[in-house]
């Protein structure tokens, strides 16, 4: 009977809003690129004690297909166990709005090497993909990211909650409540824009409380406001 070749089964795990993927630890959960910087660094550490990992990185505009206006160096490399290396992220000069933040996404795919003792076995090989928000921040924007979060406005239209951002920065929610009910689908509102999300059923009260995710990846102070009925 003919012997079948050894097969490696590959699974892709897409991980977002985390700071590490298996053996590779990523230095932050979001990236802020200030426009006055020539480039910025994103540190990676291989926490694996024995195996090297292959690291591949790129940016996209949010659709998962169109590449973002950044050059990543190195785009593909091997990171040995217990070693650290930084990705260098450089803007390629594409014209971007100068009166508000723009958002892109950083993708980091990591693949572990196969241990020698498993080289002649059928094994499951895990491929991890981490996706981080990358905010392009022009010089001279009015206010701060924290002030934009604090000054969000909320209106109720039937069974929908409208969130209005009049600032120049993105606001990403850590939590959002109307009364004691959590608004689950509220994620992020872009500068100078608004979003509408469904409210929980049988919601009571007109007090809104929220926290945003700061530049450092933690939760902001809690802010409160009165919900405007329309």
UniProtKB/TrEMBL annotation:
One of the Pfam families matching this protein, by short name: PapD_C
Signal peptide: 1-21
Residue stretches making up the Pili assembly chaperone C-terminal domain: 164-220
Domain of life according to the entry: Bacteria
PROSITE patterns associated with the record: PILI_CHAPERONE
Main location: periplasm
Keywords linked to the UniProt accession: Chaperone, Fimbrium biogenesis, Immunoglobulin domain, Periplasm, Signal
All copies of domain Pili assembly chaperone N-terminal, residue ranges: 23-142
Subcellular localization(s) per the UniProt record: Periplasm
Family the entry assigns: Belongs to the periplasmic pilus chaperone family.
Protein name per the record: Molecular chaperone
Record organism: Enterobacter nematophilus
């Amino acid at each position: 009977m003919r012997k079948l070749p050894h097969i490696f089964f590959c699974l892709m795990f897409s991980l977002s809003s985390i700071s590490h993927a298996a053996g590779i630890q990523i230095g932050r959960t979001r990236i802020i690129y200030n426009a006055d910087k020539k480039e910025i660094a994103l540190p990676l550490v291989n926490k694996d004690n024995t195996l090297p990992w292959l690291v591949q990185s790129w940016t996209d505009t949010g659709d998962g297909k169109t590449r973002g206006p950044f050059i990543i160096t190195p785009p593909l490399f091997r990171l040995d166990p217990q070693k650290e290396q930084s990705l260098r992220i450089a803007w390629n000069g594409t014209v971007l709005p100068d009166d508000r933040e723009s958002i892109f996404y950083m993708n980091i795919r990591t693949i572990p090497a196969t241990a020698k003792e498993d080289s002649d076995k059928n094994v499951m090989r895990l491929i991890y993909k981490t996706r981080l928000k990358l905010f392009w921040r022009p010089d001279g924007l009015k206010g701060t990211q924290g002030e934009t979060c604090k000054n969000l406005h909320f209106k109720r239209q039937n069974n929908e909650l409208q969130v209005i951002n009049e600032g120049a920065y993105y606001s990403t929610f850590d939590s959002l409540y109307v009364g004691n009910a959590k608004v689950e689908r509220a994620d992020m509102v872009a500068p100078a824009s608004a979003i509408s999300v469904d409210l929980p059923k049988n919601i009571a009260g007109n007090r809104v409380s929220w926290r945003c995710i700061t530049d450092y990846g933690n939760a902001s102070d809690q802010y409160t406001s009165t919900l405007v009925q329309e």
